[in-house]
Each structure stands twice: as C-alpha cells, then as structure tokens.
Amino acid sequence: MQQKHTALTLFKRSSMSLLVGLALASTAQAQSLTEVFDMAKGYDAAYLSAQAQYQANLAKADQGKAGLLPTVGLSGGATRTLFDITPTNSLSNRGYTTQTAGVNASQPLYRPGNLASYRQSQKSLDAAQAALAQAEQDLIVRTSQAYFDVLGAQDSLTFVKAQKAAVGEQLASAKRNFEVGTSTITDTREAQARYDLVTAQEIAADNDLRVKKVALEILVGKSGINPRNLQAQSVLPPVPEGSVDAWVNISEQNHPGIQQARTNLEVAQLEIDKARAGHKPTVDFTLGYNVQKNINGAATSLSSSQATIASAGITANLPLFAGFATQNRIRETVALEDKARNDLESAQRQVAQATRTAYLGLQSGLGQVKALEAAEASSQSALDANKLGYQVGVRINIDVLNSQSQLFQTKRDLAKARYDVLVGQLKLRQASGTLKADDLQSINNLLQK
User: Fold this and answer.
1) What is the share, in percent, of the chain residues with pLDDT greater than 90?
2) For the domain 2-69+111-280+325-444, what is the CATH superfamily, name and number?
3) Ranges of residues in the chain whose predicted pLDDT is under 50
C-alpha cells in the first residue's frame, strides 16, 4: 500500500513539473501577437498584392482626370519636293523644301462620356480602399488563427507528454505491485496498453505542432517563431455589446465586401451614362499656332516664303449612325447594372449570415469555456477520488487511467476553446467590417510578457 502511495505522489509531482517546465521553456524569446502581425504585414503575398492594386487604382483615378483636362501637342516636320514637269517651263525641273512647326491645344467643353469615366475612376478608388481594408482584416484573422493554432498544438503536446509521464508512473507502479503480489497482471497490461496509445498520440501531436509552426513561419516569412502563452489567470473578454441584429446593421454599413459591391453598382450605372453618351454631341475648344517655311519656293512660287497661322475655334461633332453599336452597348450596360445590383444583394446576405454565425459562435465559445472549466474541476476531483480508491483497494488501475485520460482531454479542449474565443472576437469584428489592427492589442495584453 505504501508503494502505491509513493508512486501516486511521484506521478503528481512529475506531471506538474513537466507541465511547468514546458510552459516556461515555451515563453523564452517568444513573440507577441502584434509582433507576428507586423512581420506578416510586410511579407504576406496576398496583402502586398492588395497594396499594389491600391497603388495602381490611385494612378488610374488620376488618369480619369485626363479626359476633362486640355491636351497640348507640339508638331514639326520637313519635306523635300522635286518637280519634273513636261513640257518644261519656269516652274519645272526644280526642288524645294517645306518646314513646318506648331503648337496645338484642345479643351473639352462638353464630353459626357469623359465625365462619366472620371466619376468611375473615383469610384474605383473607393473600391480599392475597401479591398485593401478587407485584405488587412483577412490578414489579421489569418495571423491570429495561425498564432493560436501553434499555441493549441503546443498545449496538446504538453498535455500528452504530461499524460505519458503519468501513465508511465502508473505503469511502473502496476509492475511493482504485480511483482510483490498486490495486483494482477491485468493492471500491468492495461497500463502498458494505455502507455502505448499515449505514445502514438504524442507522435501525432508532435507532428501537428511542426505543421502548425511551418504554416505560421510561411505566413510571416521567418523561422523560429515562438508565440507567447496566455497568462494563467487571464479573463476572456465577454461578447461585445449589442444584439446580433445590431451587429448585422453595423456590417451592412461598414463591411468592405458590401462597400465594394455597392461601388461596383455605382460604376455600372456610370457605364450606362457612358454608353448613352454615344448618341450625344461633343464640343471642344481648340487653339493653334503653326509656322510653315518654304525654302527655294513652293509648288506655285520660285521664291522662299514663310507663313504663320494662329487659330482659335470651337469644334462640335454629332454622331448620326454607328451601325447600332451604341444601342447594343446600352443594352449590355443595363444588363451589367442588373448583375451588379444582384451581386450587392448577394454580398449583403452573405455578410449578414457571416455576422450572425460569428456572433452566435462567440456566444457558444464562451459558454463552452465555462462548461469546460467546470468539467476540468470535476475531472480533477474524479481523478483524486480514483487515486484514493485505488490506494485503498476499492478502485482498479483502469479507473485511474481513465480518469487521467479524461482530465488531460478536458484540459486540451479547454485550452482550444479559449483560443477559439479570442479568434472569435476578431472574426465577429471582421464580419461586421470594424476590425482594426489595434484590436489585436487587447488580446496581446492577455499573453505572457
């Protein structure tokens, strides 16, 4: 009996020592969530692509102004002409050179198609800003998910190792008790089977941790990333204020996906204006200053001359018939407007569903954390009771092993549920379109320093 008590004491001390040792080792030279996000922001290809697209749309928006601004061109040229006229006269069999130079400018006065193009370029800039915001929000969630995936995998491996140590102590105790005749071979074989199972789980957990670390390192472009663990007594933030319908209303106003779809609808409506402009006249104001110099005469003269022409005027053009191209273009743009309107409706429905899912998921996650915390306390009490029962001979070895397995499984589930709640906070803000990089700081404050 004394041997059983000693073995159980060793099991408890070794398990706790292993858990504490692994936790302390994992915090050495660890990176915070905000530090990892900053790394990802400078390396992630999807986010950098969105940044480049935003810069391209900035330039494209400036291009849209060109159709409303004047155009100025400088021209020049030289031509050598040879005459050979039969019968000959005083103007035949000779050559002369003509040189021209000029500056011409044109200012659109009435071009409705150009005005629509300019407005489209400004709307496209709004869409690019929304796309960049959506890419940043997506990166925040992906980084946080990868960060806590590593922590979850670390916890799983830590708990499996602790369980393996506990089962190992139980196996050693069963062997000793069998040798002295206080237990049967069944206890030894049950402990050996459980030890082999936990060993297999340890291999799987170790591999899962390696995979999760590789995923995080690929995201940030740096190896050796070591996330910080949650503080032991950290209190998870509650569900943000407001009902689920209030969050859906917020998402309809702020979500980048809806903003892009709404902007695309406005661009499609302006495209109709551009198409209809094909039936409308255009009016331009023109200015010109041109010089023509004839060396050694011209076609009707033998003497050199120079002509200077300054001009100013208004040019109007009214299209009459273009092979029904304009009418068919209008039909096309009207259909595309209907498509853009339906795309907007689809985006609103998807965002509303995603917001409700994120809100309810966060509520459920917090409920699971509370339930698992109670289950952890109950599992610990059950393990203590089975240890005592085994010690006094009213419980068998398999009862202790099952209690150990249940306790460590509950600990793994609780750790994962806590991480899911933290990521769920970010997903809710992402679904509503209000997620910012600053929102990571509140989670960062819950990590070990």
Assistant:
1) 61
2) Outer membrane efflux proteins (OEP) (1.20.1600.10)
3) 1-28
